Amino acid sequence: xxxxxxxFVTLDGVxxxxxxxxxxxxxxxxxxxxxxxxxxxxxxxxxANWLSDVDGFLFGRRTxxxxxxxxxxxxxxxxxxxxxxxxxxxxxASNTLSxxxxxxxxxxxxxxxxxxxxxxxxxxxxxxxxxxxxxxxSLLAAGLIDxxxxxxxxxxxxxxxxxxxxxxxxxxxxxxxxxxxPGGLAIYVYEAAGRPTYSTYQGxx
Length: 205
What we know:
- The chain is α/β, with parallel strands linked by helices.
- The protein is 22% helix and 24% strand.
């Protein structure tokens, strides 16, 4: 399976708390819910299409707990998201969870990158990460993420946890698709391209 990261970020790179003011207030974050005003039908259609290839989900503990509060209650068979989220295998990276009631879920603890590498060897199409920025950072550093779907909202929040923090692993990416939506979201799809290359600008016309 290919490992795919979908992440919502602000223009200043913050990925914390996109869905509601109380989604993630850790570190004193007070700007949650910044993504919701820019959601529109075109973006929802794109997101539903992304789920068409999913064979499993991978979450960090915080995102898993947030999703597990809502999605099991969504039982409409025509919902474009709920049947996939509720029915596909889910994996949660956590050294603190001892059980997970949102079935089917497997808890990954210990050497998570090694376990994710094993999951990628299984037959299938896509293992998708949604949110879970801390987990994504560790898997980017391990070179395990194959594609990043970055959805940038037209807002600057000034503080908060960033997807690409200072000291993160250098990575090269190749842009393979991009579009904007009527609500102002900019969607960029990148493939992993190994380590960055560097050169010196020589000037000239």
